[in-house]
Protein 1
Amino acid sequence: MDTTLVAAVLGLLEGLTEFIPVSSTGHLLLAGHFLGFQSAGRTFEVVIQLGAVLAILSLYAARLWAVFSAAPHDPAARRFILSVLVAFLPAVVIGVIAHDFIKTVLFETPMLIAVMLVVGGVILLFVDRIAPEPRHEDAMEFPLPMALKIGFIQCLAMIPGTSRSGATIVGALLLGASKRAAAEFSFFLSMPTMAGAFAYDLYKNRDVLDASALGEIAVGFVMAFISAVLVVRWLLDYVSRHGYALFGWWRIIVGTVAIAALYAGF
């Protein structure tokens, strides 16, 4: 398959899956495996995530501007900013320490990714049913200890196939967030987390970057941006009404198909 077309498909897949709890990285790595696509240092898969980051920034730009503008004189705005930074901190520490192992071992193990999709799907279905009665309806008012706990739970997503959004949403639900607030806090936390991962990965792989791949990255970036905008606009209302069961079943189906394909030698 033409590499530009593959880049477009992977970019579309990234944008569609980044903010729903199905593991965009897992989908990208499995799709790349079965399509025979692999970028130097897995840089393509990380860089195109910036398209999804810019999508969420564009949709929340007015709200974020209001928060940062109010921060000098509004304790609630400062507390919200601090809660996101506190939740981001564990990923910084663990991500830097474990970066090489994650990229050279975990990212190169398709069977692990497929199994984690299934396991995560089962957990998501279970938590969607048994989550406690919501005590926190506003993602901008999560207590700092709760935000820190969500940040540690997010680190589980360093195992590809787990899902960053899935881990943060499950953690928030178990800690008493409503389904909508859990998804929205995951959006906010994705901004520093994904931007940080992009910057650090680009730095670590600066020696293996291939200028000839810039066209493919650009195509994937644009597709990720467009598809992520569409998903974010739809997601909050959907999970408020229907919960997360659809995504749990999707993970189980995709993971099971991938396991079967890998056993069959594909």
Note: The mean pLDDT is 88.
Protein 2
Amino acid sequence: MPRSSDTEPRSGATAASTDMARVFAPLMREHDYAVDQIDGDLPPGLTGTLYRIGPGKWEVGRTLMHHLFDGDGMVSQFAFDGRSVRFRNRYVRTPQFRHGLVSGGPVRPGVGTPLPGGFWANFVKGKGPANPANTGIALHADRLLALWEGGPPHRLDPDTLETLGTYDFGGRLRGALKAFSAHPKWDPVTGEMFNFGQDFSPLPALNCWKVDRRGRLRRLARVRMANMPWNHDVALTTEHMVFVLDPYMFDLRTMFGGGASVFDAIRHRPEKGTRFVLVPRDGGPARVVEHEALVHVHVANAFEDGSDTVVDLVLFDDFEAIRRDLSDFRTRFTDLPSSRLTRYRITPAGRVIETPLSDRPGEFPQYDWRRSTRRHRYTYMTGRTGPSGEYDTVLKVDNDTGHTQAHEAGPHTYVGEPIFVPRAPDSAEDDGWLLAVVYLAAEHRSRLTILDARDLAPVADLHLPHHIPFGFHGTFTTRVADPGAPIPHPDRLPIR
């Protein structure tokens, strides 16, 4: 099996092989089977369901989409019953997906794939980017939601993955876009889910949402904001929703003048700086703290430390490199620019203190969700041990000591976001398993790797007979998806 280590980073990393781009090849079949090729032993205590989401294909009819965020959302399901694992995958039946089955191309643009015809075709007739439901997946109040940050969720059956339609929380999700972002956060004590949506009409604002444990949504706050940037994630403490708004500004002349895509019209404006926005959970006025410009996409956990608010994020060096990677993902995304896990402490006086937590390049930070809103010791990421190359490693960062452990998945692999599952409800913060989907470029197929979170020792590898295309995020629930629930007869996907 691939090895784990806590050695120093390698002096150089192998560049991503040409085969690595095949992680973006479409998966044109929907599967339902028991996984029968397993190395190692399944932990009998690991019961529940892992859901993963990402674009399953970047073709709408005969049209190739040109941005990582534009592919049709596909959900993968791994159901653990303590003795076996069942795999299913299913596309979210969005209007874009259904239209692509019977037409040669999209009727609405993507965030990075404009339609021909300029502003009229993309923002008037096309009504803005299509919602591909491809970025986040959440199970709350018995509702499984496929999320995308520019529109409402799509509700799915948690057993069959059948699409039940868009979901607006009984009409309470409001705004021009009805946006409910792809990164909700949960308070494990109250059972509440918090999220946001960016709105640009009639004035730019952040809509901050709270969903109680029974699934009832209300708007916590509407933060009006001039110079609204693109923002992807939010953190949560016991007192605040925490936004880190980097200056990724929309150039309206580019967007409306030449018919460029939404994402092509984003410009990094470091002279405008980063804004830390703290939105009180009790509904009070938001606090804005100015800081020099940062570059990030994802945050990890956040917590209150006395009178200070603390938030962790993955800090990058170069926004333009990230933007190029998202647009040229087939050739670039498996070799992301340098990054590092970093902590920011916001004091009552408005001082922001930066503390590096690890120097290992990585992304997709995760942690024990039982520690959400409270101080946590460990952060898990996908990363690498060298300065460049594909993310072929699971990293475990000790935020208290700075020590980083690494499990290398092997040559020419790509490791997805690692999800932590505790061994028991009251087990220690790292006493459990890490679940990560690993792409094997040489075999053009994927496996689900199970690691012991305490030392990153391999526990089991579940080999699939096919690949899972590059994915974004996932969630785990102790609810075991019903293995006997039949998948509705799938639409015929064109096999290529």
Note: The chain has one domain: 18-375+422-431+469-477.
